[in-house]
From TrEMBL:
Lineage of the species this protein comes from: Bacteria, Bacillati, Actinomycetota, Actinomycetes, Micromonosporales
Transmembrane segments: 21-44, 64-84, 91-111, 117-137, 149-168, 180-200, 221-243, 255-277, 284-304, 310-335, 347-367, 373-392
GO cellular component assignments: plasma membrane
A GO MF term: transmembrane transporter activity
UniProt cross-references to InterPro entries, sorted A to Z: MFS, MFS_dom, MFS_Efflux_Transporters, MFS_trans_sf
SUPFAM superfamilies the UniProt entry points to: MFS general substrate transporter
Location of the protein in the cell: Cell membrane
Gene3D superfamilies, A to Z: MFS general substrate transporter like domains
UniProt keyword list: Cell membrane, Membrane, Transmembrane, Transmembrane helix
Protein's name in the database: MFS transporter, DHA1 family, purine ribonucleoside efflux pump
Amino acid sequence: MTLTSDLREPTAGAVARPARSPWFAVAAVGLGIFALVTSEFLPASLLPGIASDMNVTEGVAGQAVTATAIMGAITAPTIAILVPRLDRRRLLALLLALAVVSDALVALAPWYPLLLVGRLIIGVAIAGFWAMALAVVGQLVPGHKLGRAMTVVNLGVSLATVTAVPLGTYLGDAWGWRPVFWLAGGMAVVALIMLLAWLPPVAASGAPPLRALLDTARGRTMILGMVAILLVAGGHFAAFTYIRPAAERVPDITSSSLALLLTIFGIAAFVGTMLAGPLADRRLRLGVLVAPVLIGSAVTVFALQSGSYGAVAAAVGVWGLAFGGLPTLVLTWVARVEPNRLEPAGSLATAMFQVAIAVGAAVGGVLVDAFDVQVALVVAGIAAIAGGALFTSARRF
């Protein structure tokens, strides 16, 4: 069977295996994630230019990121309900096409409200793609290789984290912010072509999506897991959002040494992603405890060791290493807990990650304003460690 010759819908829960290795299909999903996450992160590096052209403040321009997260939190748990029977290959292709539309709309937007519409569309694309990724990959590879497969997918996140902001900053200064979004749209087109070439048809789960979502959400273990995601990811984003003011407490820190800290974080996150797959497949219970504990401990050390750049750099490296592995570990945990409900379980996990982004940044901001950045980071670290304890308290995985 080829990717194009069989036009019939596959039966529920089935995947039409291509002649080539399924790892090409997994890589196509990872490439799609890379294109989408790159588009998500770009505004952070282009805010001054966007604000100037749109005649708004940088704070208002920054709401383009918030809009994406909010739309993602709405989309993730509802995408399977809206398209319960659509072949998942077609759905992922449609979501990448939406990303192309979003990037083009942002690049062309003459005023800020239209730009926000474009960012809402990318929120739908990112969350929908993420929500389906676990279920799709789960049908492509055997269960004992799911951790490694999710590592390939999550490499897209790590690469986007390392490259999107610095590349966006450099190209934005050289070309202006609008051409950067055109470039992002071109990347999404390439990802779409690769997805259509490499990913075989993948059927929907076959279960009634609303009932499956509600049944999954009511499970005690999943409830613990969702709270754990909120604590760990929320703690991370509460701290990472304010990494710059926290780092600026280090004596004599410069813009170049601050950039080095972010580079250390990005490289460490990439390494963490690579290590997480084998750990998820072999020692998952250990992984979902160690990663949050390392995140929390590193954030706390970062908060309390402001007098030494070396200690701060080491803490940031450990932080990045642990956080880089977190998505693979968490999604593998979700798959172990709900192996027969991958779509609703993946949707709930994706939605909670989006909520954690918004809540973490908001709570961190409140703590920074009410106390100081050191208090915010310590609270964030405690939250992450508590989340790790919750993950391991579940018996069924």
